[in-house]
Design brief:
Pentein, 32% helix, 2 domains, five-stranded mixed sheet, L-arginine/glycine Amidinotransferase, Chain A, alpha/beta
Length: 395
């Protein structure tokens, strides 16, 4: 298991097939749970199955979070850690905490995994008493659902042969890393894996981390990732010999550009698809083990660090209106399966046409419902293993 760049042939990937947690979204809670709409769950599942099928058809091994979590929770130490983390929620109070602990103790590993992902309402809790319980409505959550678990990219990032379990900024998402951390530390599949980062550290999210080339990372800082998180990750990569250069890239702190991969993703060893409104304005600070310099234009700094003459840019659309629309619909958020082969939402017609005009094969998938949480194919996937691309094959 190792990932050194963004475009090497994808071997193994971690996905989460959306389920009952999406059915918990209502007009009353969707904002706090970070969704811009109320998705049609059945259609979202169909779209996700098409995505997973497209990956498998190209030889990619697909792992699912729910399956790995259920298998992890069969390990006593993992179950105890995850349950303790859930029961530590200060909103519960001692009395309700006791009832919830008893409820969780009676669940099988598969049932517990489902509950930790889909959440648990007061009405679904077996037993209950005390003030906190009495003041809750039947539909109020004792355990919050995790609809954003769909976006597996954010909670872990493989860099070389190590995995960074990240520190998510938004309260609605923080339990995601509790589950991810348990999987990587206790599931037999990942035995012996070294952890590069952990959820107790400064805020850092996987959507902000691009592996531009072996030894070269770009880390966006903005709404979700803090400069201190980028600095911490860089230092750990330097110490472990996993990187020689880390580019830190400030991005606008707004919903449409919440992560670096909402404005820029790689589609070839020397090419990115990028929102044209930011292509010329992005700046980067260059970190090495012994220096910090900048800022400088991102594209030039990236090319220099990667040891290439130019980092080619493919624009999201040709006119400002189309570019803005397709940026909002994750036109830049592609997942490379191999050099010059990527998965993208079918709705971003102009961006996909531009990719193909530049020699990039596009596998189009539906995303009308999946996109309601503001995430595309890259957001929905956490590569666990890639093969290094053949640089001599680059045109």
């Amino acid at each position: 298991m190792s990932v050194d760049d963004e475009v090497g042939r994808l071997v193994t990937v971690l996905l989460h097939r959306p389920g009952a947690e999406l059915a918990r979204l209502t007009p009353r809670n969707n904002d706090s749970l970070l969704f811009d709409g109320i998705p049609w769950v059945g259609r979202a599942q169909e779209e996700h199955d098409i995505f997973a099928g497209a990956l498998r058809s190209h030889g990619v091994e697909v792992l699912y979070v729910a399956d790995l979590l259920a298998e992890t929770l069969a390990v006593a130490a993992a179950r105890a850690e995850v349950t303790a983390a859930v029961l530590a929620d200060v909103r519960l109070g001692d009395t309700l905490r006791g009832h919830l602990g008893a409820h969780l103790a009676g669940l099988s590993p598969a049932e517990l995994a489902t509950t930790l992902i889909a959440g648990l309402s007061r009405a679904e809790l077996r037993g209950g008493s005390g003030l906190v319980h009495a003041l809750m409505e039947p539909g109020d959550f004792v355990i919050d659902p995790l609809p954003n678990l769909l976006f597996t990219r954010d909670s872990s990032v493989w860099i070389g042969d190590r995995v960074a379990v990240t520190s998510l900024a938004m309260p609605a998402r923080r339990r995601e890393t509790t589950l991810t951390d348990a999987i990587y530390r206790h599931h037999p599949r990942f035995g012996g894996t070294k952890l590069l980062y952990d959820p107790a550290l400064e805020h850092l999210e996987g959507g902000d981390v691009l592996l531009l080339a072996p030894g070269v990372l770009a880390v966006g800082v903005g709404e979700r990732t803090r400069p201190s998180g980028a600095e911490r990750l860089a230092q750990r990569c330097f110490d472990a010999g996993l990187a020689h250069t880390v580019l830190v890239v400030p991005i606008a702190q707004q919903r449409a550009t919440m992560h670096l991969d909402t404005v820029c993703t790689m589609v070839d060893v020397d090419a990115v698809v990028m929102y044209p409104n930011v292509a010329s304005s992005l700046r980067a600070w260059t970190l090495t083990a012994s220096s910090c310099s900048g800022p400088a234009p991102f594209l030039g700094a990236a090319a220099s660090a990667m040891g290439i003459d130019t980092l080619r840019v493919i624009d999201t659309g040709l006119d400002p209106v189309t570019a803005e629309r397709e940026q909002w619909d994750d036109g830049n958020n592609t997942l490379a399966i191999a050099p010059r082969l990527c998965v993208a939402y079918e709705r971003n017609i102009e961006t996909n046409a531009q990719l193909e005009a530049n020699g990039i094969e596009v596998i189009r998938i539906p995303g009308s419902e999946l996109g309601s949480g503001r995430g595309g194919p890259r957001c929905m996937s956490a590569p666990i293993a890639r093969a290094l691309p053949d640089m001599s094959a680059t045109p």
